[in-house]
Amino acid sequence: LLFFVVRAMSAEDKLKKEQQPVVVIGVSGGTCSGKTTVCNMIMDELQQHEQDQRVQIITQDSFYRDDLPETADFDHPTSFDSGQIAAVLRAIKNREPVEISEYDVATAKKGVKRTKIQNVDVVIIEGILVLYYPEVRELLDIKVFVDLDSDLRLARRVLRDTALGRDLTGVITRYRNFIKPSFEDFTHPVGPCVRCTETANDFATTFFFFFFF
User: Fold this and answer.
1) Model confidence over 165-204: pLDDT tens digits?
2) Would you list the DSSP string of the chain?
3) Is the CB of residue 196 less than 8 Å from the CB of residue 144?
């Protein structure tokens, strides 16, 4: 239940916010599983119960390595700079201001626009491999895995990418050669830690389970 996330972060709410560490929530799951929706639901729930909560969502896509060729496997752990992710999260937890490049899904590149993060109470980082890297995982106060049937995820991926003008054959080929194997090898194995299972027709009826580990 989202209520438990709120209570987990307000256990020491008698202290001044400036004296409290920033809470970092990691949300992982396969491509098009509903990670962004879950992040937005958590943020809305937090701000509803704690109206002065300052919440920021960031994406793992902002940490793609700059030297990746167009033919790279964008779902493989080596495509992300996990050291930079960890460094940014440490700075955020220490309430130090940071700037993060914004990733453009349409161009599959990091843009020139940057997001500045400072004076926040909660940061939610979402991505397919957020729970994979030990150095990142140890910095997460709450860890969430979003699970959705693979056929539905593929259907969503096809709809999204073709809407962006990508070739259907190319979308399916990339899914078969890169996305699916990486999910099975790197993303899904950490899933049993914590799951959030989405129903196909009614996301509002989903049960959320949040664990500390």
Assistant:
1) 899 999 999 999 999 999 999 998 886 554 444 443 433 3
2) -HHHHHHHHSTTTTS-GGGSPPEEEEEEESTTSSHHHHHHHHHHHHHHHSTT--EEEEEGGGGB-TT--TTS-TTSGGGB-HHHHHHHHHHHHTT--EEEEEEETTTTEEEEEEEEE-S-SEEEEE-TTTTT-HHHHTT-SEEEEEE--HHHHHHHHHHHHHHTT--HHHHHHHIIIIIHHHIIIIIGGGGGGS-EEPPSS-GGG-EE--B--
3) yes
Residue 74 tokens, joined: 């964008």
Kindly calculate the radius of gyration of the chain based on its CA atoms and give it in whole angstroms.
17
CA distance 121 to 21: 8
Cβ atoms 178, 108 nearer than 8 A: no
Joined tokens for residue 193: 């830690």
**One-letter identity of residue 66:** D
Q: Are 1 and 127 spatial neighbours (Cβ–Cβ below 8 Å)? A: no
Please tell me the total number of residues recorded for the chain in this structure.
Answer: 213
Residue 76, token pair as written in the block: 């493989």
pTM of the model: 0.78
- What distances in angstroms separate CA 192 from CA 20, 137, 163, 184, 206, one per listed residue? 30, 14, 32, 13, 17
